[in-house]
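Handout, section B. The chain below has 458 residues.
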Amino acid sequence: MTPGALLLLLLLTDGTSCQKVCSYQDVIDHLNLTRRSDVFTLTRPVLDHTHRTVVKLDIILYAILAVIEKTQTFIPFIWVIMKWNNEFISWDPSRFCGITRVSLPKKKLWIPDLFIYEMTEKDDAPQSPYVYVDHDGTVTLEDDLRVVSTCKMDVHKFPFDTQSCNITIGSAIHSVDEVQLVPFSNSSRATQFSREVMKTQGEWDFLNLTVSSNSFNFEHGDWENLIYTITMKRRPLLHIINFLLPILFFLCLDLASFFISDHRGEKLGFKVTVLLAISVLLLILNEILPAMSNKTPLIATYCIVIFALMLLNLLETILVTHLMEKDSPTQESCRLRDNCEGKQGESKTHFCDREEKRDNHCVCVCDMPGGDTPCELLPMAEQVGSGRPAGECGVLLLILEELRRLQRSQALLLSGTMDGGTPGYWTRAATKINTLFFIFYVVTVSLFLIFMCIEWSS
């Protein structure tokens, strides 16, 4: 055999041998995972029971799916990374063509019995069925979890609130002497990684992710937990546009109602309509906020105080209208006397009342208030003498009576002045009350809005 053929044969033999050794199945066969799998799954993977299994844990926040204040439920989507050492597993990478890591099914190895304390529902999302195993026995588990957890929320500053929800992870049966949890990343690194991989935040703006540990004693030993606190701030723009601004607009309308005349009946109806609109917004607020809270939410105080101010304004309008109505009978009788003044030659004017009309059989034709023309008395005899039938005079009397009714209605719409344009006593009192209440209302609303801005921004 020539030297060249011998060299080719050696190369082919080495290639076949290298191909046989460089397979993952050879590594698994070397570890006896297919034959003695119970050794790797039944008990904690330590050669000596006094050895502690150190589990390095890391959590990265992928997304904030939902925050439900009504039920105080927090639903994040997280990426969980766990690493621990299995003392039964090791191999020399040089014997297997440099293979340093293989993937195995979860059911083939022992997995730490970690759970989330705040989790209220089981995650039904598909999980990764494999783990990575390094040549030095380090086992790495990476999984994505959709966590439905409970969170104690403080909605006192809604919708300008900041919430902090915890994800507490601990072992179910192993104490700290057996399984010790160690954070793989500190708070700054976890926050940075979470911001880099964040997919969606929705209504909430992610601020930071802090890591802390907590130890407690219970019966057979000490247990240790890792607490990941997710801090997030609500984006209030949607609630400002859909809720706070409409209430502020209704308040401005209520302030503008002071410029509507108190003699007009639509002012009272206008205020009642605005009050009912605020009531509808209060029903919407009741659907947003949780039923129980440690403190009264500022937005509830905001709505209730504005509702109370509008109610007080409505009561003041009713009072002012009532006081002005007390002057209307006196004003109406004076107007009738002024409008029924007659003139007989050069003598003073006299009042033509109903009794005189019946006795003298006269018709009183009156001008509108403010006119200088006195009323004219038309004797019934002249009407009869002129050939008019008596029934026509009765019709004229009915027409004049209707005119008087129109004059009385007009008196209610005017500002109500007595002789010489002087307002009545109750009208003057109602005007003073209305002016003082307007000043009180504007000052109170301004101070209240300033107070709410300070409280929400603090």
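Note. The chain has eleven helices and 16 strands. Compare this with the example in section A.
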